[in-house]
Amino acid sequence: MSVPQSAEGSVLGASRTAVPVDIESLAPPGALLVIAPHPDDETLGCGQALSAAAAAGRDILLVLLTDGEASTPGKTPAERNRLVAQRLDELRNALSLLAPGKRIRIERTRLPDGKSTPCDLAIDRAEELLVDARKMKVAAVWSTWRGDPHCDHQTAAIIGRRLAERLGVPFWTYPVWGRFGERPHPGELRLFADDSAALRKQSAMQCYRSQLDQTAPPAAGEFRMPPALVDHFATHPEIFFREF
Q1: Radius of gyration of the CA atoms of the chain, in A
Q2: Are the C-beta atoms of residues 50 and 34 closer than 8 Å to each other?
Q3: What's the whole-model pTM score?
């Protein structure tokens, strides 16, 4: 996937006339299941809404598909392990800022970063997630959007749809990379914005130094989000598609 340098695209164009959505619609009373392909997608794509859901008293189960171990290629096994530990620490710190005083449960599926498919999630693991979701009384599922041009994001969308169908609850998707560039998209977008949650999201984004830090140049092959996109995710209302 090529990384865009500016925050422009058909989804963002359509969002200019999108209808606002409230947290009661996105996360009805009950628990919320959020699927993130990598540590940081939950904050970039739906951090405001996740924060607002926590503030509204929703219990939250975060299913982390990969540990983000491939964001810097060419690392030795020991270096990859250190990167995984760093990214998981960043995730926990970000969630503590998005949902202060509230524990968000994290379930790691450990799918292969950068090359996952829905088939990689073992049937028994998927059943375990369903059991947990039913115990928590999950009332809505969120995942990255199927139109995101990244295999892990598309895997998240397919798994999210399957879980939501099995649970019989609403399924919402949030575009991350798919909001940039020209691509087909559903006609009906919804925007979520909350001033207090936006401030918490901005603080949470600062936890992801391995991905977003602009103070030091990246090492060779290391991913670093372009400044224009960091600014975009920090300030733009969040975009959701209601899948069913």
Answers
A1: 17
A2: yes
A3: 0.95
